Amino acid sequence: MSAAGTPTDPTTAPESTTMSVDVTWTPAWDRTEGEERARALFASVYGTAPAGVWSAPGRVNLIGEHTDYNGGLALPIALPHRTYAAVSRRDDDVVRLVSAQEPTGVREVRLADAVPGAVTGWAAYVVGVAWALREAGHAVGGFDLAIDSCVPFGAGLSSSAALEASVAVALDALHDLGLAGTVDAAGAATDDAGRSTLAQVCVRAENEMAGAPTGGMDQAASLRARAGHALLLDCLDGSVQHVPFDLAAHGLALLVVDTRAEHSHVSGEYAQRRASCEEAARRLGVGTLREVADDPQAAARALAALAAGEDGDLLVRRVRHVVDEIARVGEFVTHLGTGDVTGVGPAMDASHDSLRDDYEVSCRELDLAVDTARASGAHGARMTGGGFGGSAIALVDAGAVEGVAQAVADAFAAAGLHAPAFAVAVAGPPAG
Q1: Which of 180, 191, 280, 419 has its CA 20 to 30 A from that of 379?
Q2: Among candidates 205, 192, 83, which has minimal Cα distance to 133?
Q3: Per-residue pLDDT tens for 178-232?
Q4: One domain for residues 241 and 303
Q5: 204, 223, 245 — which closes off a domain?
Q6: Do residues 61 and 245 touch, judged by C-beta distance below 8 A?
C-alpha cells in the first residue's frame, strides 16, 4: 500500500476504511497462483498433469468504442486479470473441457462435429479456436483443457477474448504452429505478425462459432498488447503502435467499475448497431465509415446525405458517434504523448456522452457510475466495452481511488442496485 492508501499492486485490494457500504475489489491473481489453480483443476478432473499452462489477459479499452468493426482506431490496454488454460494434446479429435467458473462438469466435443451453431455456451469460444485453426489449414487435433480465470465474466472486460487467446497460444505451442512467438522480459511479444494471425483466428471463432458479431479489438489487445503501454490499433489495416501508458508516474490511477449489469455480445442490440453502420457505409458508397472519418468535410457531407434518407436521424447519430470517436482516439494519444495525461479527461467524458446519446448503448448503471465518478473528482469517466451493461472506467488521482470507489458504491446502494465491484487497471503483458 502507498502512504495514501491506494493499491500499488493490482493483485492487492485496498485496505478498508470507515465505509457506509462495503466496497468489493476484484484482485488479479499473480501468474504463479493462476497457473497453479488451472493445473490443480486439470489434475483433479483428468487424473494427470497438463502438458502446460498458458494464459491471456482481459482488456480495458481506454477510448475508441464501436470503432473496430468500422475500420477505425481503438486504444485498449491488457489487464493484469487473466484466464489460465491448462492443456494437453490428445491422439484423437475429441476436445474435453472444464471450467472452474462453470459447475456443469466436463463437456466433450468431437472436432469433426464442430461447425458453427453446433457448439453452445463458453465451449463455443474454445472449440471455435481449434475449428478456425483447422479451417486455416493447421493440423490441430483433440485436447483436454481446464480453465480458471480472474477476468470478471459479463463485465465488458473481454473475458471471451481472454479465453480464446489463452487457447490459441496453447494450441500454437502444443502443435508447433510458430505463430505466437514468445513474450520477453519487458512484456512484449516477439512475433507481432504471427499474433495478428492468431487474433484473426480468434475473431473468426467468436463471430462464426460463438455467433458474436464483434470486431477485432478485444483479441488484438489480448494477443498483441505490451506491458506498460496502450495498444493503438488501426482496425482498417490491422497495424499497431505501442503508446507508453504509466499512470502511476503521473500520480494517477485508472479505476474500473464492474457495474454487475451483465452484458453479452451475442445479443440483438449489438448486432443492430453494427448493421446500422454497415447500412450507412453502403448508402455512402464506402467500405467502412473510417473512409469518411478521416476527412472532416467528407464526414459533414456524409451526415447531410444520411439525414435526407430513410431512418436518417438514427443513422446520423450512429455515424456521428463513430466519426467523433475515431477523432477522440487521436486526441487521447496526443495528450499522452505530450505528458498531459489529465488532458484526456474531456475526451473520455465526450466518449461516454456520445455512447449514451448517439449510439444508445449505455444503461442506468453505467451512467450512474460515470456521473458519480465525475462528481467525486475524476478527471474523466466513460463506459468501456460494447455497452448494455458491463464496466465503466474513471481516471482519478492515485490518492482518490478509494474515495471515488466508495462514492460509486454508495450511489448504487442508494439507487437500490446490485453492488458494483472495483479494480485498478494497469497495462499488463499479452497472452503467453
Answers
A1: 419
A2: 205
A3: 999 999 999 999 999 999 999 999 999 999 999 988 889 999 999 999 999 999 9
A4: no
A5: 245
A6: no
